[in-house]
Design goal:
The chain starts with 8 loop residues before the first helix and ends in a 10-residue tail after the last strand. By secondary structure, the protein is α/β, with parallel strands linked by helices. It folds into three domains: 9-52, lambda repressor-like DNA-binding domains (434 Repressor (Amino-terminal Domain), Orthogonal Bundle), CATH 1.10.260; 62-155 and 290-316, Rossmann fold (3-Layer(aba) Sandwich), CATH 3.40.50; 158-288, Rossmann fold (3-Layer(aba) Sandwich). The chain is elongated, with a radius of gyration of 23 Å. It contains eleven helices and twelve strands. A six-stranded parallel β-sheet has the order 2-1-3-4-5-11, with helices on both faces. Strands 7-6-8-9-10-12 form a six-stranded mixed β-sheet, sandwiched between helices.
Amino acid sequence: MEAVGRVKLADVAARAGVSVATVSKVVNGRYGVAKDTIALVQGVIDDLGYVGNLGASGLRSSRTNVVGILVADFEPYSAELIKGAAKATRNTQYDVLSYAGGEAPAWERRSLARLGGTLMDGAVVVTPTSLDSAISVPVVAVDPHYGPNWLPTIDSDGFGGAKSAANHLLELGHRRIAFLGGRQELDSSQLRESGFRDAMRLAGVPVAEELVRYSRYDPDIAQEVADAFLALPEPPTAIIAANDVTAMSAMAAARARGLTVPQDLSVVGFDDIPDASLCDPPLTTVRQPLQAMGEAAMTMLLTILDGRDHEQHIRMDTEFIVRSSTAPPRA
């Protein structure tokens, strides 16, 4: 992989249109710089990924013996992946740095520019949206937005998982089944919708297009979409949600309308985060082996750092978990 040059004070100064001395004052928290200028310089620092002297100790040797797992946010899905990644580094020389880069565009590139090479030797990046070949350290992607590509990748069988969810509801007797999707541009989200549609097609049950909508995995949007489903003249008897958090939002929308899950509405999620078995009722869901995925991704990264051969893409099986949120539709 082609390494990018380390960003210098002069680079920040040139981009911001200020002197190197001004940038130095901002970086070191010194007085004498206007508030607007501080904001301007800090924005350029964030954009370019300038890390100052934070990595000076790392520059003195070829290795930092630190590996990263970079996520957009610390939420239930990424927390399980982080647990698995940490497990893979036990009894190795590596420490793990967990880092949340936010959901702004190109957060991955900025995070890698800020941390790569000086603070860590390589990284597992979770659901990256924007990476190119000019990265400074080896990277393994978990569930990249664009699907398996040039980066070593770990993901799970979203198509088969969603198909098993739809088949379960069809076998219970449901025919008016809604699909509460995630992010339309995300490859794994598309695969889950395709699995749902394939199960319906094979069963000879038409998909009602007014029952296919998207939440971007935002629980508030998901609750609004589920409520809109339930307000239809002919509401669904079941909802498949593209993750567990939005499935729980669908259950909340049903409760708000005085409906009971699963007697009035069956709900299926995807992921099997810890809360899925603890909510009321416990959620029927498609289990992604999240900790195993995190462990496999980190193991692959350590293999790359050791200079050994590695697989380019690993797709892990999902497992359908039946709990109490699904039942046959009312007669």
